[in-house]
Amino acid sequence: MPQLITMITANLTAYHEHQTHQPGDANLIVKQLVRDYRDHLADLQVIVVGGDGTLHDVVNGLQEMGQGQVPIGYIPTGTGNDFARANHIPLTYQKAAASLATAEPRGVNVGRVSAKEFDTKYFINNFGIGIDALVVYATNHSRSKNLMNKLKLGSLSYPLHFATALMHQKAFTASWGQWALDHHDDRSYLCVFTNHPFLGGVRLIMPEDDDRSALHLVIVHKEKWQVIGQALVALLKKKPDVPQIHHYQGPEFHFETEAGEHIQVDGEELQAPLHVTLTQVTQRFLLPTD
């Protein structure tokens, strides 16, 4: 860590280091930074060293304060690192830290979900209902999670729990649409809203031009689990001509489910029923120039 701090601060005139100890700490820290810098916010940059969960907390803190213009640099040290993959940030901390020297602030679309059931939340990666959220739940509550992280095998947690979730996930009823709830399915298996193509470290079906100016919704329809397995493999191989898979994109979505499904927002666990509106907002990030 001292070597990393030296690399990060080499081109800075002043800096303050803050440690987090549990989920939510980064949210509180960045809010206090905004208060401390309220008279000179143009001087504030936030460098996050951690996983996508820590980055999620920082983005939520800035957006809740109405300060999405504060640029965030990111050095990924998590397991999935979906945000880094999507934004071409190096996945090794040495290269990511070095890239900050020439990084430029750019606006990136992040998701916003407003619900009757909880306060507005923002997501850098995705908002999922169904099997991916069940995998997140199983991974987070696994007795072997800490051991695998100590052995630096944390990246295997998601695929290890996926097979079990594949057989246990039940079909659920969902309604969705861009301007009204004009789509309905009583055999939904996966509904995921995403800002970019990556989920659990792998790339999903997305348009060839990788349109980042819109939210994307991928829905997988429930069939026999063998067929579902084939559909999910097709999803990962970017072969959209499978009848169980539906893909939509747009600036806004409405979504409802009365089922008691697992839900995840950037890996944060929630529970249905759910009545939400999803849009995007802009957050500035310090991103590599090459």
Automatic annotation (TrEMBL):
Protein name per UniProt: DAGKc domain-containing protein
Entries under PANTHER family matching the protein: SPHINGOSINE KINASE, SPHINGOSINE KINASE RELATED PROTEIN
Coiled coil (UniProt feature): none
InterPro entries reported for this sequence: ATP-NAD_kinase_N, Diacylglycerol_kinase_cat_dom, Lipid_Phosphate_FormReg, NAD/diacylglycerol_kinase_sf
Protein source organism: Secundilactobacillus paracollinoides
Cofactor annotation: Mg(2+)
Family (UniProt): Belongs to the diacylglycerol/lipid kinase family.
Protein's UniProt keywords contain Signal: no
ATP-binding keyword on record: yes
Pfam families for this protein: DAGK_cat (PF00781)
GO molecular function: ATP binding; kinase activity
